[in-house]
Model the fold of this input.
Amino acid sequence: MDMTKNEELDAKFREKAKQLVARMTLDEKVSQTTNWAKAVDRLGIKAYNWWNEALHGVARAGVATVFPQAITCAGSFDEDLLEQIADVISTEGRAKYNEQQKYGDTDIYKGLTFWSPNINIFRDPRWGRGHETFGEDPYLTSRLGARFVEGIQGHDEKYMKAAACAKHFAVHSGPEDIRHSFNAVVSDEDLWETYLPAFKVLVEDAKVEAVMGAYNRTNGEACCASRTLLIDILRDMWGFRGHVTSDCWALKDLNEGHGLTKDLEDSAALAANNGCDVNCGNCFELLNLAIKEGKVSEERLDEMVVNLFTSRMKLGILGEVNDNPFDKIDYMCVDTEENRRFNLKVALKSMTLLENRNNALPLDITGLKTIGVIVPNANSRRALVGNYEGTSSEYITVLEGIQRVTRKYAAHNNTEPVRVLYSEGCHLYKDRVENLGLADDRMSEVKTVCNYSDVVICVVGLDATLEGEEGDTGNQYGSGDKRDLKLPGNQQLVVDTAIASGKPVIIVLMAGSAMQLQGAEEKCAAYLYAGYPGAQGGLAVAKQLFGEASPEGKLPITFYHEVSELPEFTDYAMKGRTYRYMEKEALYPFGYGLSYSPVEMTNASVIPDESRECRVLKVSADLTNLGRYETAETLQVYVSVDREGAPKWQLKGLKKVSLLPGELKHVETELPWEAFGLHLGKNEVTVEGDVTVYVGTHQPDSRSEALTGTAPERFELSTARGRLRVKKGSLLDELNG
Done:
């Protein structure tokens, strides 16, 4: 079998890596297997720290473009946009790296191995780290994750611009406070149908360079030392050729948390023997002892270091390199005005409009004299960015964005600016703002602002001090996880007070997860889910509120009515979770989102491609912008397989297009044969029987239809005898009567 060009280059770098490793002593080789790899001066090997972060911008290393958090970007439902975001991130990362190298700075967060993206499935809204992911759907996560990897690694014929990492492998999504000892028990069906597909796509299609193991066990095996995951599936089945890293200090959990080994030396041996190449932590410093005692072979150590050196050579940062085009990227590419404009565009494309009663939005600035802006996230920088963030040179909060837009309008039209009144309203989660004050110490101010305002904008939600990773949060909840879906502190009281004032209330939710507002959703004039919208996010919110842009995002997660609808947090079975398996009607469904301009879908059709033996389905439809605002719409294709225990339906195709007012666009996408099957174990896809295909702009559930007043087109197909055949619902069937 002929090797691809990618495989040929990998083989050449790997051979050079083997030659270099052959010249190293045992201690020198061991020194390369922790994240702070030491210099070996006699061989020209520089010190290198493998740990860097780039979830939504180069993180923790000074100034960089801080994009919306991953879950917010996922709301764009836009593959191209995700690759463009990652391309900016890797360009800035390479520019910063090039400058850091000039000054001998090899500290943590200064390398080119970015431990992103997080492609775990956001199966439960209580999970604090869910906002690091692309949501609850395996297909959407696969597509966005793959394009993010391609943007990070680039498309040069020889070198990677940076290295991406698919994490956390696998079956990982909380609870945070027991992750170091927790055993996630999962069926074969859920493992292969839900938890592994995105990893498979990133490995096989996007050629991700690194994979990170999770803290927990999966079906008894610690993920960072799992022969099943790291060797049988990742290496042998999927053909992964990059390197595997542990999560940070996860290897000490093998003995301290999981009780699988007796000490750190045995933990290092277990992880090394089962496929882990680099340890974020210090357990692998004991590998020289483990090798001398026969617990690990030196051949396995050589393999580990070869994997690591091959990655560094593919980055062009090890050995004599004089032809790496990325060495020419300089610091003036970082935090540019162009990147700020693009960041604003990303935020505008990612927010989701959930309610808009009587076209309350966009606000008509000419009819307003006073606007009230209340609740703590209105003027919070922390609520803009989520976690794993970098440092922006400019942050624009929602309050500041509203002030900018209203002042700009007044200056342009030579009128008095709209008066913007502000009240913090309450503490983010405590019952008072001032420690010495009484409870509800801002309530009189809230009532005053509402009384004097023509419209009240309530900016509610969370920030990364309330939902995030264990150890990074200092909150009243559970190590970053949420106990319920309610607004913390007195935020709900402030919202209810604003609604009781009789003034129109616009709710802006800034959070990385599903929340419920205890009925305020039904009483407000409009409801915008802004997520964590990035450093330019406040300006983006303001532009959407005043109609300078139309919302076009779709929910990458389900908004539930309450936690009691869900199984136990520790239950990893998918039954009752996410749109694919939930039994009750959602508050706001996955894939749902409104626009200021209605978009009509017509002429939907599905046609088996005879040129490819009817094993590919060609899907098309016309989308027409019926309104007066430029907007964008996403064609969504769902597949339902007629089999007991199967998901109700699953997203299997999407295509997003921009539309000018009155514009019609013909949209096409394709579904491969695998889209009509189910993963029932060992990655086997079964395709035989009846399937239903839904083509529309949202999923085919009753709640989406009620919220939008539209329904997807339904097509019944057969997959018998290895070929797709349309049975009912095609355009041809309708024409033939």
The chain has three domains: 5-320, 340-553, 599-735. The first strand starts at residue 36 and ends at 37. The radius of gyration is 26 Å. The longest helix spans residues 79-102.
